[in-house]
Specification:
Elements (H helix, E strand, L loop, with lengths): L12 E4 L2 E11 L10 H7 L6 E6 L6 E4 L3 E5 L7 E2 L9 E2 L12
Antiparallel strand pairs: 1-2, 1-5, 2-3, 3-4, 6-7
């Protein structure tokens, strides 16, 4: 069995390695849970995605793209109280998010 580490998660803010000025939001991942109920518009626009691929909606309004995780850098990942976290997928120990602080740098 091929071991793949998940690098990008649903709702991660990402940018392309070669285009750091282009920010996007991950809206679909290869490891998403499939409930059997799909949004037909989403399926028509993106279709099925392969191993280690994600669909990104770009902040500049350009068309969503299906990209390989290795082409992206995670700029931000949201955590909520109670989320279970690990330092790496191989760690035995895990923790629980007990507090969240949000800081923003706004640019005009």
């Amino acid at each position: 069995m091929l071991a793949c580490f998940i690098q990008v998660f649903l709702e991660d803010a990402v940018y392309l390695k070669d285009r750091p000025d282009l920010l996007g939001l991950v809206v679909k991942t290869w490891h998403d849970f499939e409930s059997g109920e799909s949004d037909s518009d989403d399926e028509e626009s993106t279709g099925p995605i392969g191993l280690q691929q994600v669909v990104v909606h770009w902040a500049n309004g350009s068309a969503p793209e299906t990209l390989h995780e290795d082409d992206l850098v995670v700029a931000d990942r949201s955590f909520s109280h109670g989320d279970v976290v690990k330092r790496s997928p191989n760690d035995v120990m895990s923790g629980t998010v007990a507090d969240v602080k949000v800081e923003l740098d706004l640019q005009r």
